[in-house]
Specification:
By secondary structure, the protein is an alpha+beta fold. It has 22 helices and 29 strands. Among the domains are: 110 residues, 434 Repressor (Amino-terminal Domain) (Orthogonal Bundle), CATH 1.10.260.40; 259 residues, no CATH class.
């Protein structure tokens, strides 16, 4: 009989009533729960819970998870009933019947009129990251923190501790983003109050007044603030979560003092030996005028990247003993005093009207109202880190923040901690190392003895770059209807995942035996590799039409003609294809490790979390994924900007590893500023690009071997095929919902592919004929079909 009862209980549980997705999300955020916390409690993936809260994906829990989820929502509904004046949400069941939820009496916590506003929750730091510490957001954000983390300080007068909110809700709940509220709601009425008293717009809905433990009380107001001047002349600092502070500062030096002493802004370190992030102050145009700075740079100042040293504001800073970095006072200015022991005194400025937020990566962020800009940058800071400059600079700084070059050690005599003289294991250290001669770009001091105008060939120079290859269509391809492009998600991030790179200096070896596990640069002849016959698995060879495939060894897809320098992943791929290699010489790095793993994990999590909030989850079927990607930018344009910034942080950070000289006055053979950084590592950049290109080629070969289809154009991470259908589903092989092993797979995860665009074959032939370029790279224009110049960049 008990078995029958169990069966009945299971049947009832399988139809446990659930509220609509919007109500599920409201209840979770009202209690300050993150998606990760709910997922961990129910033993499901984060993306699964996100799908249950999305009205677009229409996914529903089943089995025991549904019963547990329904129980959680019932308990939360008792604590946080629907707001007065709103109809109680209708609960849904797996069957056709629906039931009205019975509201519970309001609790005292829900009726507090000055309840704090929500702020973004940080992305989880992967277990593989060394000694991770969650990114800072205002103090109430629930996150996994060490048991030794300081408990939050009691709520200070006038500065309530914010509650938790997901990334997308943080943007959408911004008072300025609430289009239904009156415009005046984004600016509170002026009243006499202490200098750093919080000011919250009246239009914000009350939130629960509970504050989860574990947040850092030093940074209770979040990582940053956007300083603006309202119509009444009051200077306000807009922080994340809708918090607004009065700013008493009358000058820029006093603004810096206020930021460090009263504003309680900043972000905890991302790694145990690291440093806390300095507070970021964003100055609007009205704030620039208030503090005596130009609203826009002159052409001369723009080219110099700074205002003149004799500017009155710079003199004010100097009189107050504040210093500027060598880059001077530009769009991303750093104002500091030399550190006293472990205490840092530094503030980062961001000036959007000076083009600090490049529109190529930040879209229209620089034109947003102060409150909305604070929300957007706050989401990025919570998921990645507080911006330290351009997305490229931030990408590089993130590497250092996750792998600090040095660490503190205890002095046995005094018991005090002091800076270690040795580098932190797994880091690049604090001193730069010279590249191998073959890795050095033209003009490097290592090459100053080369004859003038000497052009180094592949036998002298490592040239690992992304693909830019195309070929004419075959007669059979000309009979196809369409050209369909697919694009690899975060291809270079995926190339960095798990990659072993050098951490120290290179060692020169003559006639080495190739080791695919040893990072370095190898001089080897790969011209004998024939793509007409390759190995695709152990002891499994296939015959292909090699003339329709690009060479995996050169960016232009041309077959090498003799010995050339290659990074380890490229040479290893030649062996994988079934061919022997015999290096002539090499520069290898015996001190090595997976330096980029934590960097990849954090950026991957930021990307996936933001896309999930935009309705694109990681566990969607191929058809549902394509449907979810349709119009994803329009669902929340500001959150879409965060996605673009995360992707730009990946590419820009890798590009900074081989930053070239900038500005006038530099001559070939002379050092430039970037060479003084430990993170100036062209060998690491080359290894990532090499692995990314090889990963791409491997999928192309697997696809050709299985389907007989060959690419007609490749640009970086986009490949174009001539097919009869219009969608990737029309030519990507799937069997029982499963993709070709080792081939292309549709999905949002880094390394998987999405649809880039579809144009007709006739369009492609007309474009090539118009520009008299039979091998014009159509992958560059496949997205929109618009061709403005054959020399357009990526």
């Amino acid at each position: 009989m008990s078995e029958l009862f169990d069966a009945v209980d299971a049947l009832v549980a399988s139809r446990s009533p659930l509220p609509p997705p919007e109500e599920r999300k409201r209840l979770r955020t009202a209690h300050g729960l993150t998606l990760d916390e709910v997922a961990a409690a129910l033993k499901v993936r984060r993306a699964t819970v996100s799908g249950w809260e999305s009205s677009k994906t229409k996914t529903e829990p089943r089995g025991p998870e549904r019963e547990a989820y329904a129980r959680l929502l019932d308990k939360l509904a008792e604590l946080y009933p629907a707001p007065a004046g709103e109809a109680a949400p209708v609960q849904e069941t797996a069957g056709p019947e629906t039931f009205a939820a019975t509201p519970a009496p309001a609790t005292e916590a829900q009726t507090v009129p000055s309840a704090p506003a929500p702020v973004p929750a940080p992305a989880p730091v992967p277990a593989s990251a060394p000694a991770p510490v969650p990114a800072s957001v205002p103090a109430s954000v629930p996150a996994s923190v060490p048991a030794s983390a300081p408990a939050p300080a009691p709520e200070s007068a006038g500065v309530p501790e914010p509650a938790a909110l997901t990334a997308s809700e943080n943007i959408q709940s911004s008072p300025a983003a609430n289009t239904a509220a009156p415009q005046a709601a984004s600016r509170p009425a002026r009243t006499a109050r202490p200098s750093s008293t919080s000011r919250r717009p009246a239009a914000r809905k009350a939130a629960p007044a509970n504050t989860p433990a574990g947040a850092d009380p030093r940074f209770v107001n979040g990582p940053l603030a956007v300083v603006d001047v309202d119509d009444d002349g009051q200077v306000l600092a807009y922080c994340v979560g809708g918090l607004v502070l009065d700013v008493p500062a009358k000058s820029l030096p006093s603004l810096v003092d206020w930021t460090l002493k009263e504003a309680r802004l900043g972000q905890p370190k991302l790694s145990g030996p690291g440093k806390d992030a300095d507070p970021l102050i964003v100055l609007t145009e009205s704030a620039l005028e208030r503090y005596g700075l130009p609203v826009a740079l002159t052409e001369e100042e723009r080219l110099a990247g700074r205002i003149p040293e004799g500017h009155k504001v710079i003199k004010q800073l100097a009189r107050a003993d504040w210093k500027l970095t060598k880059r001077g006072f530009g769009p991303w200015a750093r104002i500091y005093r030399p550190a006293q022991g472990s205490e840092r005194a530094c503030v980062q400025l961001c000036i959007p009207s000076w083009h600090a937020l490049d529109s190529r990566h930040w879209g229209e962020a620089g034109q947003l109202p102060a409150a909305e800009l604070a929300q957007l940058l706050g989401v990025f800071a919570s998921l990645v880190m507080t911006p330290r400059g351009s997305t490229a600079v931030t990408g590089l700084e993130l590497m250092t923040a996750l792998h600090p070059p040095t660490h503190a050690v205890r002095d046995e005599a005094t018991g005090e901690f002091r800076k270690s003289e040795t580098k932190t294991p797994g880091s690049l250290g604090e001193h730069p190392v010279d590249p191998a001669p073959c890795e050095a770009p033209d003009g490097h001091p290592l090459l100053k003895d080369l004859p003038r105008f000497h052009v180094r060939g592949p036998g002298e120079k490592l040239f690992e770059e992304a693909y830019d290859w195309a070929r004419p269509l075959t007669d059979d391809e000309c009979m196809r209807r369409n050209l369909v492009g697919i694009d690899v998600n975060m291809a270079f991030a995926a190339g960095a995942n798990g990659l072993v790179v050098g951490l120290g200096e290179p060692t020169h070896v003559k006639a080495p035996v190739f080791d695919p596990k040893l990072p370095g640069s190898w001089l080897v002849d790969l011209s004998h590799v024939d793509l007409s016959r390759v190995k695709v698995a152990k002891d499994k060879w296939v015959d292909l039409d090699g003339s329709l495939l690009p060479s995996p060894f050169t960016p232009k897809g041309e077959r090498p003609e003799g010995p050339a320098w290659y990074a380890t992943p490229t040479v290893a791929y030649a062996m994988e294809l079934g061919y022997d290699v015999a290096p002539i010489e090499a520069w290898v790095r015996y001190d090595n490790g997976r330096y980029l793993d934590a960097w990849y994990n954090r950026l991957r999590d930021a990307y996936l979390a933001t896309m999930a909030d935009l309705g694109v989850d990681a566990d969607l079927s191929p058809a549902d994924f394509l449907a979810a990607m349709d119009g994803w930018r329009q669902r929340d344009p500001q959150l879409a900007i965060v996605v673009d910034a995360v992707k730009a942080t990946v590419k820009g950070g890798l590009g900074k590893l081989r930053e070239r000289p900038r500005g006038e006055g530099w001559k070939p053979g002379e050092p430039w500023r970037a060479l003084s950084r430990p993170t100036w590592r062209p060998d690491i950049r080359a290894a990532v690009i090499s692995r990314t290109r090889i990963n791409f080629h491997r999928k192309i070969v697997k696809h050709a071997a299985f389907t007989g289809q060959y690419p007609v154009a490749i640009l970086s991470d986009c490949v174009v095929y001539a097919v009869d259908g219009e969608s990737p589903l029309d030519f990507l092989p799937y069997r029982d919902g499963k993709p070709l092993p080792g081939g292309f797979k549709l999905g949002i995860n880094p390394g998987l592919v999405k649809w880039e665009g579809t144009q007709s074959v006739l369009w492609g032939e007309e474009v090539r004929e118009r520009f008299e370029a039979p091998e014009l790279n159509l992958a560059r224009y496949i997205k929109t079909g618009e061709v403005t110049n054959v020399d357009d960049g990526e």
